[in-house]
Automatic annotation (TrEMBL):
Residue ranges constituting the EAL domain according to the UniProt record: 347-600
Stored PROSITE patterns: EAL, GGDEF
Domain GGDEF residue range list: 209-340
Organism of this sequence: Sulfobacillus thermosulfidooxidans (strain DSM 9293 / VKM B-1269 / AT-1)
InterPro entries found in the cross-reference section: Cyclic-di-GMP_PDE-like, EAL_dom, EAL_sf, GGDEF_dom, Globin-like_sf, Globin-sensor_dom, Globin/Proto, Nucleotide_cyclase
Taxonomy, superkingdom: Bacteria
Entry's Gene Ontology molecular function annotations: cyclic-guanylate-specific phosphodiesterase activity; heme binding; oxygen binding
Protein name (record): Diguanylate cyclase DosC
Residues making up the signal peptide according to the UniProt record: none
Amino acid sequence: MGHGWSIKDSWDDPNANHEYRLYSDPQLFGVVDDVLGFADLLGWDHHDQQVFNALPWDTIANEAVTRFYARIQQIPELDGFIRKRTTYDRMRALLWEHLQRLRDNPQDLKAITYAETVSLGHLSRGIYGPQFQAAYALLMREVLNASRQGRTHTTWSEQDDAIFRRMVIEMFIMSATQVAFTSRHDGLTQLPNRDFTEERIQDWMGEGTPFTVIFADLNGFKPINDQYGHGTGDKVLQIVARRWRQCLHQSDWIGRWGGDEFLIVCRDPHNSVSDLVATLRDALTVPIAVIPNHPLSVSASFGWAHFPQDGKDTDTLLQVADQSLYAAKRARQSWLLDPIHPAQFKAADGIAFVDEALRQDRVRVFYQPIIEAKSHTIWEWEALVRIEGSDGRLYAPKEFLPAIAQHHLLRKLDDRVMRLVFQDISHWHQHGWTGHVAINLSYMDLRDPSLLSLLASYHQQWPSVKPHALTFEILESALLVDMDPVKQTVSELDQRGYHFALDDFGTGFSSLVHLRELPIRQIKIDIQFVADWASIAGSRLLQALLAFAQTLHVPTVAEGVESLEQGRALARWGVTGWQGYAISYPLPAHEVVSWQLHFDDSMPDE
């Protein structure tokens, strides 16, 4: 099963076509039921279809395409991409076809299938996520502008509503498909990610057919990262992934486990594991031509375990393979012939970590200021949870929240944070401080019938804290399923005087709907948009997103502002508020009052 590699191997050619093959099947990603439910939530019905079909759609589409491409041509990166891959005439024809397809009822399977096909086509060319959504929001804006040509009034009409909702449904289908794929694959190597790989291993265990899992860890990768930078390291990982994928049989599997570690599943009973490992090892013997005239070299260590003899559940099987890999690296061998069973395996247990922190009162709340971009006055503070470990170290949410995302401890943690916030605000009031605090609410909070009574009890215990002093930030993921109870809870809280903000705006596929369906008084632009503000493409996309948000007259906060220069540029583009290290790192509660008193002196003039 050997495989010969040449220095001119096509996988190492930066000009070669390395697009990942995607499959268009509306049932594959499970979006059909979600689309039908989403359309129902929007209230899309026969009347809406009639209103849409009655529009002079050919005229609108022609004008929208012209307007859209006039904007695209102003972005050198996108203009160069189109000219390199195709022609404007071809792209115009494709966009025209897409707009014409919007005449189809979005609840029909053929319409869903078409939107999925378009979405995966974009994804295979690297067009997805924030860039895709910002571009589609820009297209939607131009369609709405084109439909208003010659209209004397500017109020939102029945025709506007039909166009808006039809295109939002289309965006939902395309974004949901992309999210379903990208959530299961590693963005760098396009290999299945860890979660998807574990899911497939569990499926194969259920089938009862023997297979072997192989951990592979690169040797010599860290020095490449340190000396040549992470960009070069990323390219090395991509080439390794491509070479190894070529080595495998069709029934085998390879996923990226994390960092420079991969997991291979050998499912062919006739394939020798030692031969496969030798092939994977040999694939790395040819230097990797990433830097001109300076080939790089890496090797790999391997450790494996057999199902079912080495483990009948996922955790045990992977522990055996991981310990075998660790022993191989310790012995400086490429692989070990026999798996090593751990006598005792200790893994970081995020659930136990949070549970212990709650019981031992080690949950802490820090506060980060949000300021108005133009007046430089403090708008509000966001409450950010930290956990103090038994070692005294403060752990950030990314280190423990993923472990409890689907666990009831998340609700308990949110309750503790809310209680601490009420306590801190009350204490600040005793020192003459007045202001607003933003608190994150999870999907569990919004669906908990006891939330309202819990808040009432906190107000009773700390009566100086009023509802209008609190803003609840809700993630888009909290709004994707079963919207009715969420809308009811949000509506009741809004009537009681609480404010609501939509967090990580633009990262989900129904932000626009939420801005119309819920009493959102603030949107927070996700940090991944803000981080790319200095590039031409990034600034264009950010401005397009902000322009669309401004049409709905909702204030915006830019997350992750790291310099005053960046903040001022965002203010010129219409951002209402800043939040980030350029203003302040998150502060413990006892520093908030003094920091705010000295804030005016610390903020430089324009």
